[in-house]
Amino acid sequence: MHLDHATIVTADLDAARHFFVEVVGLAEGARPPFGIRGYWLYASGRPVIHLVDATVPAGAGRAAPRIDHIAFRIETADEWRALLGRLQQAQIGYQTAEVPLAGELQLFVALAPGVVVEFVTALQHAHP
Question: Which residues span the domain enclosing 59?
Fold first, then answer.
């Protein structure tokens, strides 16, 4: 498992993109067709920063702008099954979502209000 990306939610999407591309030196790249505006910014060929438009007003412990979540990439079916087993053993609930056109599955765990951890893997690992 390795750290995959950080997601930043902001009402000033274009300014954030400008900072990370023009100042930090990341490259704007391909992004699945989610139903909300955003950018995926790449370093060394990998999307490491996901920028998401803050379409919902801040509130209920979810300020905007914010770093929304961190994500860990699971590389094998065995790792994925082991993670699911540990979540079940600890009685930790989660939600899953398929990434449009990417052949990947996301699993989200809400640790506390405003604290989310994502795990992502290839669909073939999630459904061998």
Answer: 2-126
